[in-house]
Write a structure and sequence with these properties.
Helix content is about 40%, strand content about 15%. The chain has 7 helices and 5 strands; from the N terminus they run αβαβαααβαβαβ.
């Protein structure tokens, strides 16, 4: 917790959702549908930056379904998180790289962002820049260009 900074605090999921204007959601993809059922009402109207990727070897049948679908992962994320201002991002760069390379000298690491909400995309792009990365807006949620193709070896 100390590494998160002096202004960080711990709490329950419901408390974080109530407190936050923008929610950074980083959970295994198989858990996203249930998370939406459990917390969707509280998330409605908030910007949610969703970072998950479907890996069949971890996520089972839903990982396979999403991967084999003609839609992008963001399509499913939007179905399971109705009413949120969804932006997909931070899922195409390994978290170790994010920690190591934030605020490096140009060129900065690019963070691909996809959303169907232009205003939410603009806000998140600004936050990505403030976090020391280069925001790269790539389009809407149904694009299939924002998925990692395999589970990183350090996660397997």
């Amino acid at each position: 917790m100390a590494s998160a900074g002096e202004n960080a605090s711990a709490g329950e999921i419901a408390e974080a959702i109530e407190f936050g204007e923008i929610i950074f959601l980083s959970i295994p993809y198989f858990a996203l549908e249930q998370f939406g059922k459990d917390h969707g009402r509280a998330l409605a109207g908030k910007i949610v930056i969703e970072t998950g990727n479907p890996y069949p070897e971890r996520d089972g049948a839903i990982g396979t379904e999403v991967r084999e679908s003609p839609f992008g992962t963001g399509h499913y994320s939007a179905l399971w998180l109705p009413g949120v201002r969804l932006v997909r991002g931070f899922n195409s760069v390994w978290d170790g790289t994010l920690v190591k390379e934030a605020h490096r000298s140009p060129p900065q690491v690019g963070i691909a962002l996809a959303s169907d909400d232009a205003a939410a995309m603009e806000i998140v792009a600004k936050l990505v820049g403030e976090a020391g990365f280069d925001p790269v807006t790539i389009g809407g949620l149904k694009l299939r260009r924002l998925e990692r193709s395999s589970l990183p070896s350090e996660v397997k």
